[in-house]
């Protein structure tokens, strides 16, 4: 496990602890804690864990190593620092929130930089990812495109949020930005990583490649409709986007349902090689 | 995939189904969306996404680390407490919207259950991340 993975993972766990504490406060009636809770939940806990898994799994699925590990470690350290700064600003210095959100957006862009460096400059590994399931290679390819698009949604969503918080955009764009981060980044990565990981862990293939393509297309179109509709106040467009997103999630559940059944083979051993454990 | 992970993933998809239904209702009734936004966040973010992360994480992180999880009873506790907490809290938000007396109790009970689950997950995964290579 690389240093970057550990740092992302530990930051995510710390954010989970903080978000949980704020959550209990919200549930006890302290509504002033709502916004800090949502931020730490989305951009601390969930984003941190997604990045931890991605930085470990991407080299395995692409059969390449990061060319500049220091860049990955830098991203992890900056992520920890900006998450802490944003939480502190939310709770103690609200006037600084647009700045800390902007810093989080800039840090989020480092994920794309690292992914591009892996894809275009990464050192090829001698062995490729273990693929024994039918059509899984095609699913991996389609899912990788989806996770790349999802990776772009994080810095864009945070940049929109920073602009709305600084008063550069109408207040409606705050909700639009949070939905871009949730539906584009978080849900996009959950779906993309799900298509990579769930079949491998269960030994059962995805239902069909065509279904995966349809689901990801519906997902992308839904995000493209919902976000501007929320920002520019277009209720009819929002309805269409919402229904399309509901369809996309139903299709995802249908596609991965076989993976949730009792595994066909015993669980992969906890040892290097079950899911490409390196370093 | 282990039993607790499958339970967490199935709970995640059940939460998604409830959250999606709510989302579709919101598209048809915007004021309902404003009133039940906390329930929407509870089901979709603390529910679907977090339960999905718990389920996948408890299976995949030990394999990344090359070490098994050390506390099987804690794993089972997380798999039960997390979904129970999400659905209790969601019911609490619904009860609060209807101004029912049980709302506060349900919200707090759900929050405590989720906090127990989060604490368990932090211990289980933290041990793996902090273990020496």
How would you describe this structure in keywords?
heterodimer; A: 279 residues; mainly alpha; 2 domains; two-stranded antiparallel ribbon; 8 helices; 75% helix; 1% strand; B: 133 residues; Four Helix Bundle (Hemerythrin (Met), subunit A); 0% strand
Number of strands of chain B: 0
Instruction: Quickly count the helices of chain B.
Output: 5
- Low-pLDDT stretches of chain B are none
Secondary-structure element sequence of chain A?
HHEHHEHHHH
The mean pLDDT of chain A is 87
Oligomer: heterodimer
Radius of gyration of chain A, in angstroms, nearest whole number: 19 Å
Category from helices, strands and their pairing of chain B: mainly alpha
- The CATH architecture of chain B can be named as Up-down Bundle
The proportion of residues forming helix of chain B, as a percent range, comes to over 70%
Number of strands of chain A: 2
Name the shape of chain A in a single word.
globular
Task: Provide structural commentary.
The complex is a heterodimer of chains A (279) and B (133). By secondary structure, chain A is mainly alpha-helical. Chain A is built from 8 helices and 2 strands, in the order ααβααβαααα. In chain A, strands 1-2 form a two-stranded antiparallel sheet. Chain B has a single domain (3-130), classed as Up-down Bundle (Four Helix Bundle (Hemerythrin (Met), subunit A)), CATH 1.20.120. Chain B is 86% helix and 0% strand. Chain B is built from 5 helices and no strands. In chain B, helix 3 (37-65) packs antiparallel against helix 4 and helix 3 runs parallel beside helix 5. The longest helix of chain B has 29 residues, at 37-65.
Secondary-structure map with pairings?
The complex is a heterodimer of chains A (279) and B (133).
Chain A: H1 3-27, H2 34-62, E1 64-65, H3 69-92, H4 97-121, E2 123-124, H5 136-165, H6 172-202, H7 209-232, H8 235-256
Chain B: H1 3-28, H2 30-35, H3 37-65, H4 72-97, H5 103-130
Helix pairs in contact in B: 1-3, 1-4, 3-4, 3-5, 4-5
């Amino acid at each position: 496990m690389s240093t970057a993975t550990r740092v992302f993972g530990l930051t995510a766990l710390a954010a989970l602890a903080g978000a949980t504490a704020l959550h209990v406060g919200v549930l006890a009636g302290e509504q002033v804690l709502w916004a800090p809770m949502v931020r730490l939940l989305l951009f601390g806990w969930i984003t941190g864990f997604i990045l931890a898994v991605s930085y470990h799994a991407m080299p395995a699925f692409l059969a390449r190593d990061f060319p500049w590990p220091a860049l990955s470690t830098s991203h992890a350290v900056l992520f920890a620092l900006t998450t802490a700064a944003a939480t502190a600003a939310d709770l103690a210095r609200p006037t600084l929130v647009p700045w800390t959100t902007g810093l989080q957006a800039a840090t989020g862009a480092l994920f794309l930089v690292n992914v591009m460096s892996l894809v275009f400059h990464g050192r090829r590994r001698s062995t490729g990812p273990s693929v024994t399931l039918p059509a899984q290679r095609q699913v991996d390819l389609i899912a990788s495109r989806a996770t790349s698009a999802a990776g772009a949604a994080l810095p864009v969503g945070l940049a929109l949020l920073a602009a709305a918080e600084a008063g550069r955009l109408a207040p409606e764009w705050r909700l639009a930005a949070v939905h871009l981060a949730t539906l584009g980044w978080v849900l996009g990565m959950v779906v993309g990583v799900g298509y990579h990981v769930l079949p491998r862990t269960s030994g059962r293939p995805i239902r069909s490649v065509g279904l995966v393509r349809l689901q990801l297309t519906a997902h992308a179109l839904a995000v493209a409709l919902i976000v501007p509709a929320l920002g520019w106040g277009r209720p009819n467009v929002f309805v269409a986007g919402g229904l399309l997103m509901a369809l996309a999630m139903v299709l995802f559940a249908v596609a991965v349902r076989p993976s949730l059944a009792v595994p066909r083979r015993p669980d992969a051993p906890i040892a290097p090689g079950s899911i490409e454990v390196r370093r | 995939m282990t039993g607790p992970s499958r339970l967490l993933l199935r709970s995640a998809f059940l939460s998604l189904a409830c959250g999606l239904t709510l989302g579709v209702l919101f598209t048809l009734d915007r004021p309902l969306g404003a009133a039940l936004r906390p329930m929407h966040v509870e089901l979709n973010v603390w529910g679907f996404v977090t339960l999905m992360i718990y389920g996948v994480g408890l299976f995949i992180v030990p394999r990344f680390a090359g070490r098994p999880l050390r506390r099987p009873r804690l794993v089972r506790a997380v798999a039960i407490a997390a979904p129970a907490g999400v659905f209790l809290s969601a019911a609490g938000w619904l009860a609060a919207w209807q101004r029912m007396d049980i709302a506060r109790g349900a919200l707090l009970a759900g929050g405590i259950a989720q906090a127990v689950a989060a604490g368990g997950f932090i211990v289980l995964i933290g041990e793996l991340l902090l273990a020496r290579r």
